[in-house]
Amino acid sequence: MTTMQDFNLRKAINLGLIAGFISLFISVIGLTALLSKRQLIAGILTLGQLLIFLATALLSYQAAEKSSKKSTAVLNSVIVGLVSAIPLAFLIVFESLIDLRQFFVNISPDLIKIISFGQGTTTGIAILFAAMGLVGLIMSLVYLLPPQIRRSIITGLVATLIIGTFSELLTERLRVFFGVAFSKTIFQSKALLPSVAAIILIVVTALSFVWTKTGDGIKQRFDVIPDRQKRYLRVGNWVVLLIILFLLPQFLGSYLSEVINNVGIFVLMGLGLNIVVGFAGLLDLGYVAFFAIGAYTMAVMTSTGSLGVGHVSFWLALPVSVTAATLAGIMLGTPVLRMRGDYLAIVTLGFGEIIRILANSDMLKSFLGGAQGILNIPKPEFMGTVLIQPAQLYYVVLAGCLLAAFVSYRLSRSRLGRQWMAIREDEDVAKAMGINLVKTKLLAFAIGAAFSGLAGAIFASKLTSIFPHSFNLLISINVLCLIIVGGMGSLPGVVVGALILVGLPELLREFAEYRYLMYGALLIVMMLAKPEGFWPSAIQRRELHAFKDTEPVPDSTQTE
N or C end of the chain: which has fewer CB within 10 A? Predict the structure, then answer.
């Protein structure tokens, strides 16, 4: 029995049981019933139902991918689908015999109604097995399609599901710009109409297919363009992007502008931590300390309350806040220069906790307010206009992000950036090549802390009040997670990671209690399926794919 070419019944059953227990776990913790409140396609599909079928669909596709023959691909995928229904079927049976809610509070009649499709026990189980088997069959047929068609269909499905997921927000925006009548032609009860969903699927699939056919030709024509014209095109692209970013609040409205502001603050912190972790390879778990220092410096200098000192404007306090965070970064970096890996992570974690505890202590209460925090922090003012609305404050956040992105980009291409990357790969070799480890590491800590201090200063002015509980360890963990998800050392990856880990939970706020469960699941999936991140840097992608390409290929004649 070979390792890859004989994907047998036992492996298909194992994958099916894994998918089934994932669906069962999601249902038992209450996520399925909660997500079912949001419809994707009116009267046909809810987000909770999609979640039940998602694990089955992914593992059925994997079963087809591991099969050596087309006939076995279909069979294995159908087996995975049928087996994945077994755990949920047992749940339906046990609930009909025993009141499981006394042991698991989330096993409600609504949940049983969802997984049994609103039918009785016997009929519901039969429909469940048929639906799961059909999902397995569909995924095997999708895999057997030519690669270009397969990618196009998957792109169309993903686009349709994304639009359906955020249909409530899209409905509100369409009503503002085009009126209620137009909105009703696309959405019904805050969900996509089935006919509109079919049109979106067909159109996006067709466009994706056309792009896969013509995209390579366009890229080849671009490659033969003279370098001077390429530069003009790149500049034109950046100009278009900046215009879109500048006009974005006019289309988003107050709520979405507030979400983008929160994302932008985490992008600022992510760009700073990306220098420390992504470029220099220094694992910093106390990054929130610099965020807190920047915020408290801004609060103390600008507050009109009793704790305010200078009563200066936002713009005068901003460089002082950044400088204070930078000095704190140097102070932290100096004693930990000889530490690496886990030891460095523990020391920086302790530094972050020390700053939080000091801010919360009675010893500094007369300066920092203790648990009561600092209130009456004024909003930024620009040319006589107080930036109260989220759409107005957006431009301050955008300016900070653009500045940080520009500095990070230039540093990544500079000699200092190459020194950071050399230290990340091998510190001893970097030292042997003449790199000054003390200076280079301190610069990484200082610049990373400066970006975090800038984010903290904007954060304090945005909220107009700050409290110690806003600067706990989870902030550092969130920023580190968005770098990992987006791609270590990648500037676009920071933005992508912030949109996924900060933007999505804000848009799906009714499911906020499951946020950290989603974080953990997403990180596990990323480490297994795409360890380089959603948008990795060219170096990271090259290193990981080169490693995969050099892995020994298993001998097909070798038996287990």
Answer: C
